[in-house]
Amino acid sequence: MFKITLRTFRKLSQLFFLALFFLLFRLTDYSGLDEIPYAVNIFFRWDPLVAATVLLSAKVLVSLLLPSLFVIALTMVFGRVFCGWICPMGTLLDGTGKVIHAPAQSGQSLRSVKYVLLGIILVSSLFGLQLVGYLDPFSLLVRGFTLAVDPVFNLLVTGFFDPLYRYAPQWLSNISEPVYGVLQDSVLPYKQTFFQLSTLSGCVLLAIFALEKLEKRFWCRNLCPLGALLAIFSRFSIFRRFPKQACKGCRDCAPNCRMNAFDSDGRQLRHEECTLCMDCVDDCVNQPSRFRFAVPNSPMQIDMSRRSFIGAGLAGITLPLLSKVDAAHTLPRPFLLRPPGAADGNEFFSRCVRCGECMKVCIQNALQPCFLESGYEGMFTPRLIPRLGYCEFNCTLCGQVCPTGAIGRLSQSEKHSFVIGRAVFDPARCLPFADQSPCIVCEEHCPTYDKAIKFQEVTVVNRQGKSVALKQPYIIPELCIGCGICENKCPLPGDSAVRVVRAGKQSEEDGFGY
Amino acid sequence: MDRRNFLKQVAVWSGGVLLVEPVFRITPDLLAAETVSPLLSVGVGKNYANLVASVLQPLGGMAAFVKPGDQVVIKPNIGWDRAPEQAANTHPEIVKAVAELAILAGAKKVLVFDRTCNEERRCYMNSGIKPALDSIGGRQIQCSYVDERKFVPVTIEKGRSINKWSFYKDALEADCYINIPVAKHHGLSRLTLGLKNTMGVIGGNRGKIHRNMGQNLADLNTVIRADLTIIDATRILLRNGPQGGSTRDVKVLDTIVASSDPVAADAYATTLFGLRPEEIDSTRAAAEMGLGEMRLNKIDIRMV
């Protein structure tokens, strides 16, 4: 029989926040308005790990991230309820665990690893190296869903309905098409997207879920640096589990604990590991234990040795140094374009938490994750690849969803003059030069009010010896903002005959400004 | 089997399977037959809805084109993410007025679409066209985005420059095809008018069309011949076309030109820019192919 217990409320809360997560993910898109009316990035804005690393690395307090104080306050009162009741990663892992059953509790524990990782991330960020994107649960989740899960989901559904539309008899597609329409209006993304690093992102996410096969909530117990940060704050929390005095010490609760939070004698609870899932309270058969408010008395030490602590600190100092001598930073990268409104050079790197929100929202599928073009620590930072998608002139969505200000929020008129790069023609390929044939598709699409691409009317002798009148395009650099629509629409096969190269402040820092 | 039915059948059968490629055998004589003394109507007025109705009067009203039960395609220019006053897209009030008249004339369904240059949702929204059509309500008017699956390959038998391209199924199948371009400047073709607006119903890499644009456009128009062309010159873009942006480049004329002859409509609209019809390559190429009349003195022009 179904009985309402504390666990029921926990599950409802988990489902609510999971649904909220997916709803906001879906709403991270153009809605017909120039402004996105919802705080679609709220999961990042209340993430204290994101707030802490941005504060340390960019040395700036980002007001967008103030909601993270709420999560810290919540943790200081109730402990890690965030992990047990709110975090969508935790909920998805719980769900995975129901499908692939972990073996019984082993005595071994790797739980100190997460503190080491947290230490490395925090110390590195203090020295300007932003690593949080590799391990922050929401960065992993939103990025993984944006780059891999969502496109694959759409591919699967489309792959089912498309053949029905194309090959099935009319009566069948008369049924399937309305169903497809409903799906398109509800759960499917607006269109099929394509991303670099889709396989890598998908596999990283898959690996996190596969770890569930080793231990329940392996990720949360052992790896999650956000969990580690909340664990530290939870040590001061005043809402704690107490066995009733008459607890016989049957230890039934300990082996079932999803966080393996009980100590070896099975009675004492490591409070900072507990996510308040309430299983042990609900399952207690003898004399129910319960949670109540109390002043903590002599909490156990965080499960981290002094050696680990020092090791994490040293690694956190070493990694930024290694990154400083990475030649990827001195090599010119003329085609590495950043989104409109991106902060300059180092500030962009120290603010960007690789959350993937900008890539999710980009309506032209133009923003793509970097691989190793700007060093390993630049992996998953957004870049504009015009041949895949150009930057839409009137669109300012990426700056609106960026939770940390790595991509600044631009008004439409600021956006119209923000220099992403500058277009450069390759006359060896451009049709009116190389082939003596008319084209100027680039000029047609150039969106600046006074076109940055203009043309010269010339008469040339073509290969047949005939003299022909032609319009040959050229760039007015001061007018070009590098949106890349020219590169995108150039009708040549393969590479475009007009390419956008880095310009503006970023390229000045490279020392090879255009 | 009549022509429409034939078109419909081949389009359906070739839809997606890509095995059958229809061949269009529209002879120049057949096309020329309708253009002996083309009627063209021009109107000026501030109330665009009334203006559309009165401009169509000399042509016999919408009922001369749309028969009860027809599937009507209205093809405005929704190419750019621009506001109505920037004159890059067809004016939303005109699109709305034409759609309403088609419904009044008994159209079973009115399809409005364009393969846009900028992101389609932004274009449909910011052109004001989708909101205007949505405000009519009802299920007869469908203002939907282009579905890539509906482009079917077509062999253009009469094509002089291109003989194969993919076209949008709904456009091929329409009982009545109403072309409502906006008149504006264009860097390569000088102006974009009715014949050029046909580029919005073709698939593929449209940039390639630019290689021999005038003839290519005429070729495309042997496949899609508008039953009615209504050129929106309520405000025209004089420079920085085809998408403009600055209202300094826009001139308000409050004018609409309508004709069942697409070449005549383009020819007349050219004069609004102070140009002669033969200066526009596509007009000249189409006239040479017998698609319509471009000599202004051979066109029966009615001012309303």
Automatic annotation (TrEMBL), chain A:
Q: Which Pfam families match?
A: Fer4, Fer4_5
**InterPro entries according to UniProt:** 4Fe4S_Fe-S-bd, 4Fe4S_Fe_S_CS, Electron_Trans/Redox
Query: Which CDD domains would you find in this protein's record?
Result: DMSOR_beta_like
Segments spanning the bilayer are: 49-79, 115-135, 193-211, 223-242
Question: Where does the 4Fe-4S ferredoxin-type domain start and stop, copy by copy?
Answer: 237-267, 341-372, 380-413, 471-503
The molecular function terms of the Gene Ontology recorded here are:
4 iron, 4 sulfur cluster binding; metal ion binding
On whether Membrane is a keyword of this UniProt record, the answer is: yes
What is this protein's name? Polyferredoxin
What is the species of this protein?
Desulfocapsa sulfexigens (strain DSM 10523 / SB164P1)
Q: State the taxonomy lineage.
A: Bacteria, Pseudomonadati, Thermodesulfobacteriota, Desulfobulbia, Desulfobulbales
From TrEMBL, chain B:
Q: Which residues form the DUF362 domain?
A: 72-270
Pfam families for the chain: DUF362
- Judging by the UniProt lineage, the source's domain of life is Bacteria
What protein name applies here? DUF362 domain-containing protein
Query: What's the source species for this entry?
Result: Desulfocapsa sulfexigens (strain DSM 10523 / SB164P1)
Upper taxonomic lineage: Bacteria, Pseudomonadati, Thermodesulfobacteriota, Desulfobulbia, Desulfobulbales
